[in-house]
Amino acid sequence: MALIICPECGKEFSDKAPSCPNCGCPTHNIVYSSRDSFSDILLSLKGVNGQVELYHNKIVIRRKGFIAKMGSGLFKGDKEIFLDQISAVQLKKASALISGYIQFTIPGGNEKLKGIFEATDDENTVMFRKDQNKVAEEIKNMIYQLR
Ligand SMILES: [Zn+2]
Fold first, then answer.
1. pTM higher than 0.70, yes or no?
2. Nearest to 126 by CA among 73, 63, 43
3. In Å, what is the CA distance from 110 to each residue of 40, 91, 118, 120, 125?
4. What pLDDT digit, counting tens, does each position of 40-65 carry?
5. Which of 7, 26, 31, 102 is deepest in the core (most CB within 10 A)?
6. What is the 56 CA–ligand 1 centroid distance (Å)?
């Protein structure tokens, strides 16, 4: 059992309850603030060159099992970025013909890559197809909400 904090009224209650006992806000609408629930995946996006998993306090970009057609070809496994490190999320929606991308900007982190890599070669960027537009947007919104 984990305790969660109701965003509506601030009361702490069990995540097993269907809603906040104080104000009735449904549990599934509540962003978990307990450390116990940090390991749950909130959203996951299956991209063309990687997968983005959104947790309560971080994102993980997984490249395993993806053929990374990167200029550098040097992506080593998974990358964790804590939400409070992310200063901006750039999102370009995919069309039927062109892949979209979601890029996580980290102060200092992306700067040194400028001029060396294209946006699509950035290790903090994941390309995706049209069917992932919705989840990509949800991830962006959730990050701004959570951090
Ligand atoms: Zn409440």
1. no
2. 63
3. 27, 16, 11, 12, 10
4. 889 999 999 899 999 988 999 988 76
5. 102
6. 19
